[in-house]
Amino acid sequence: MQWGSVSEFFAMGGYGLYVWVSFGVTALCMFGEALAVWRRHAAAVAESRDGSLGG
Amino acid sequence: MGINWFKYSSPQAFHPLAGKMVPWFSVAAGLLIIIGLYIGFFVAPTDFQQGDSYRIIFVHVPAAWMSMFLYVIMAAWAGVGLGLNARPSFMMAQAIAPTGAMFTFLALLTGAMWGKPTWGAWWVWDARLTSELILLFQYIGIILLRAAIDDLRRADRASAVLALVGVVNVPIIYFSVKWWNTLHQGASVSMTESKMATPMVAAMLIMMLGFWMYSFAVTLTRMRCVILDRERQPMWGNQTSIQEVAEAR
Q1: What's the predicted TM-score (pTM) here?
Q2: Chain A: closest CA distance from residue B206 (Å)
Q3: What is the chain A residue with the closest CA to B110?
Q4: Which residue range forms the structural domain that includes residue B172?
């Protein structure tokens, strides 16, 4: 491991902004998509249940 | 004809099966990505030429690969759908498109994040970058075309044709760094040789596997949504199957 300290790790040898934006946006997109699709499925299941009860 | 086929292929059977697979793919994705990030940030050394900015490739390369893999898989399902008039195939293609578009966007964004410190430019109209941008427009076009057509059958077929025709762009993206004299560097890893240190390659490949597992989990869940949504369409109206699907969750 080449990091002397935590701040050195976050600085990424001066490229911190580029590295953390890349990883951060990727994480946000993937978590966001997974959450959205999971909620959409839960809603679709709930709606099918209501539909079958009602009719 | 289509109705009979549908009976045997049975999205109602697929829905609970996919539901059983999704947790495994999700766990595998989480573990692989954590291991990949650990190796990428704590085991892989700093690159002697690019410094630590090169670590962006641990998300950039897997995202770029997924953007192309998913397009090919989507186009293949679209082709099967057109050839066999198989609605579940069209539904798979529909379920894959948004995830493919997301990875294409991420490949472009992380590429810009790498390009700025390395080339001094966020963007250049280079063959690799331009063809990848076109891929993003293709995904968006396919999603929008589907959304614009109310008749499900016509929406399926039209977006499938568009997906199939557009598959020619995938080899163009892949070989662009060979065919044209581009700013984008050539492939760092091939089947036979690697220009990178072992932990770097390991981190990249493990991240890619993680992204694969993620894609399986998300597209299968979206496929389940598509099944449920279409079940509620009047033309698919079948109260017992709706109930079965809901209860088999």
Answers
A1: 0.88
A2: 15
A3: A22
A4: 28-214
